[in-house]
Amino acid sequence: xxxxxxxxxxxxxxxxxxxxxxxxxxxxxxxxxxxxxxxxxxxxxxxxxxxxxxxxxxxxxxxxxxxxxxxxxxxxxxxxxxxxxxxxxxxxxxxxxxxxxxxxxxxxxxxxxxxxxxxxxxxxxxxxxxxxxxxxxxxxxxxxxxxxxxxxxxxxxxxxxxxxxxxxxxxxxxxxxxxxxxxxxxxxxxxxxxxxxxxxxxxxxxxxxxxxxxxxxxxxxxxxxxxxxxxxxxxxxxxxxxxxxxxxxxxxxxxxxxxxxxxxxxxxxxxxxxxxxxxxxxxxxxxxxxxxxxxxxxxx
Length: 300
What we know:
The protein has one domain (5-255): Rossmann fold. The longest helix has 29 residues, at 110-138. Helix 1 (14-25) crosses helix 9 and helix 4 (110-138) runs parallel beside helix 6. Helix 1 (14-25) links the parallel strand 1 and strand 2 (29-33). It is built from eleven helices and eight strands. The protein is α/β, with parallel strands linked by helices and 300 residues long.
């Protein structure tokens, strides 16, 4: 990553801070982007980005701060312009900015839906899109996006977050397909780590408290090596993939493909679907599971 220019959004939090520090150690020139608000959108302190950039410079790194929001088209353009103004180019975008408005689907209101979609899905698109002309012009670039098993598998009370995070997977695949001819790569990471995002998980039962104690063992800094790798030239042959990082484990996630089919030569009716198709397909149905049900073993 020596002298590579990286835009990192959501840089001041646990996972973002770890990635920023790892990028600086690897020799990257970084745009540290963070609006400095709480997960619920309160506050707004541009000083958190300034503070992290100063910290990285004091340690010998190269960093500049940017407090523009990812959730607006124009401000996302300014985030990328910050890289061009200070460094003259951009080589990678790491979309890490995030927020939460957890609520059961039947209680969720419009603002809770829109605010999460705006930051996660729209923000990932806006910043990625702002960098795209520059990647095309230089015939190269890398995108790293943060998804979640809340979208890949499922979770309670996160319809907004889950929809955004699974949308990011589809966006990443589309970017990888559309920009492959320009030598531009796009991949996703599903991080397992204790951070502000997981700190909001309620511990209102003994089981939930036990799960939280397990999560606290998952160091946010463990996500950084994969993010730096995917942003680097070493990952030149890796695109369109979904990885998970959980302590010292790395996962490669499957992607939706047909698992079974049934055929009726005369065509289907609602009755024949009920009598023939569903019984034949049911053995291959996916269980209604959450992330903890699927990744149920203790972290290494």
